[in-house]
Amino acid sequence: QDEKSHYISEIKRLLKERDAVLVAHYYTDPEIQALAEETGGCVSDSLEMARFGSTHPAKTLLVAGVRFMGETAKILSPEKTVLMPTLHAECSLDLGCPIDEFNRFCDEHPDRTVVVYANTSAAVKARADWVVTSSIAVELIEHLDSLGEKIIWAPDRHLGRYVTQQTKADVLCWQGACIVHDEFKTQALQRMKTLYPEAAILVHPESPQAIVDLADAVGSTSQLIQAAKNLPHPQMIVATDRGIFYKMQQAVPDKELLEAPTAGEGATCRSCAHCPWMAMNGLKAIAEGLEHGGSEHEIHVDDALREAALIPLNRMLDFAA
Ligand code: 13P
Ligand code: SF4
Predict the structure, then answer these.
(1) Is 90 annotated as a binding residue?
(2) What PANTHER family does its record include (predicted)?
(3) Does 264 or 220 have the greater pLDDT score?
(4) Ligand 2 pocket member 180 (CB < 6 A)
(5) Which residue of 19, 65, 227, 251 is surrounded by the most CB atoms within 10 Å?
(6) 45 ligand 1 Cβ < 6 A
(7) Domain 181-259: what homologous superfamily?
């Protein structure tokens, strides 16, 4: 029995023993997504992960993703034990929006409704009026604009610019960025398109403007998988984390999926289309999380923060319903 299958059978045993379910993001490694599917868990975008975790009857959630996803699960289900393979799986958007600075920013613009992306800390969510994920960002900003509200958007500047362009709302943007999506390179993508003239270009809106401008479809992870199905093109050039290829290929088995280029001439690639924090979610770490729990693996959220963050999170889930 090799190491991988040892951990897989350990995880299956521990999931049963602990009355636990595996909730995995599309960007985790294919073997983790496969295991979540096989064991009755879920593989999805951040919105669906939140919904699945809060409605599933299991006592324990093992969240394979990054820390804000575990925190969101705990905020929505305080009675459940929420475990993660590692609590060090961060997100550059979350790290780039510290609560003290964010509080000052909001205090300077008290007339604005505060909308934050799910990729934020519990403290930043607690300060917000609304939480959103990329799958409902445009619709929510459109809705708030129709009510005449002026908006603070945080933390991703590219997604903020994208929703502003789509809605023409009055949006003031925090200047955060995702280190993965920020790396896609325009000229290299244009060259790739000339090599694959029949390919469609699929882009996550955390990518820079020039990349979004080349897209045939722009959307959240789940929307990009849907677009791969709907578009007639035989090939897809995909500008998001390559972890998505596992589910996308299942959805379009006959189409060829190609990674959008991350390193243009002379550029250094820091993340090469795979989130370094998502990559921390290995099989061994999942088995250890389920086995030991405790301070290395269990998510805790301060009660007062939890109660405050629950309000905008529930608004998000109600709006998305
Ligand atoms: P989704 O909400 O599209 O799953 O995106 C989460 C994320 O972290 C994108 O980088
Ligand atoms: Fe955060 Fe980017 Fe990783 Fe998504 S891909 S979790 S936005 S760093």
Answers:
(1) no
(2) QUINOLINATE SYNTHASE, CHLOROPLASTIC, QUINOLINATE SYNTHETASE A
(3) 220
(4) yes
(5) 65
(6) yes
(7) NadA-like (3.40.50.10800)
- Per CATH, the number for 93-173 is 3.40.50.10800
Distance CA 249, CA 254 (A): 8
Q: Which residues contact 120 (CB under 8 A, 6 or more apart)?
A: 68, 93, 94, 97, 128, 131, 154, 155
Question: Measuring CA to CA, which residue among 31, 114, 115, 125 is closest to residue 71?
Answer: 125
Domain boundaries, the chain: 3-89+278-300, 93-173, 181-259
Q: CA-CA distance, 244 to 122, in Å (whole number)?
A: 26
CA of 313 to the centre of ligand 1 (A): 16
Query: Where does 65-130 have alpha helices with state H?
Result: 67-76, 92-95, 99-107, 122-127
β-bridge mates for residue 82, sequence order: 61
Structure tokens belonging to residue 25: 């993001």
Q: 90-130 pLDDT, tens per residue?
A: 999 999 999 999 999 999 999 999 999 999 999 999 999 99
Q: Tokens 């390559």 — which residue? A: 242
pTM: 0.93
The contacts of residue 74 (CB under 8 Å, 6+ apart) are 80, 82, 299, 300, 301, 306
What is the distance between the alpha carbons of residues 284 and 138, in angstroms, rounded to a whole number? 38
CATH of domain 3-89+278-300: 3.40.50.10800
- Helix, strand, coil shares of the chain as percentages rounded to 5? 50, 15, 35
> What's the gap in Å between 134 CA and the centre of ligand 1?
7
